[in-house]
Design brief:
Elements lengths: L1 H4 L4 E6 L4 E6 L11 E6 L17 E6 L3 E8 L6 E8 L4 E8 L9
Parallel strand pairs: 1-3
Antiparallel strand pairs: 2-3, 2-4, 5-6, 6-7
Length: 111
């Protein structure tokens, strides 16, 4: 679908896996779509857990979050190269992790 629509970049948001995590896959590994593909996964707010704390996923950035969580995404459009902040928070609103991606990071070649 990404190739068919002519997308120049994408950020995938997913859930229902129970742990939260951020993964990055090189675009050449995804049927040559031509840009890196990020996937932010969060659990439902009341169903954290699942997976294993030692689970190895070669494309994961950082660690997985196994307690109840939700995702928060903010975009700073005022920046010269807009910044997309991906955050996973626990059920009390405390940040479990944050990862910033520049809009140019979603495209090849990187600027």
């Amino acid at each position: 679908m990404l190739r068919k629509t002519g997308a120049e970049g994408a950020l995938i948001l997913s859930g229902d896996r129970h742990p939260a995590e951020l993964s990055r896959l090189d675009g050449d590994a995804v049927n040559g779509i031509g840009f890196p593909l990020y996937d932010l996964t969060s659990s439902s707010l009341n169903r954290g857990g699942g997976g294993s704390p030692n689970e190895t996923i070669c494309h994961r950035i950082g660690r997985n979050i196994r307690h109840n969580n939700f995702a928060k995404i903010t975009i700073d459009w005022a920046a010269d190269d807009p910044v997309i902040s991906l955050q996973v928070l626990d059920d009390t609103g405390m940040s479990a992790f944050r990862y910033d991606i520049r809009l140019s990071d979603l495209r090849y070649p990187r600027k």
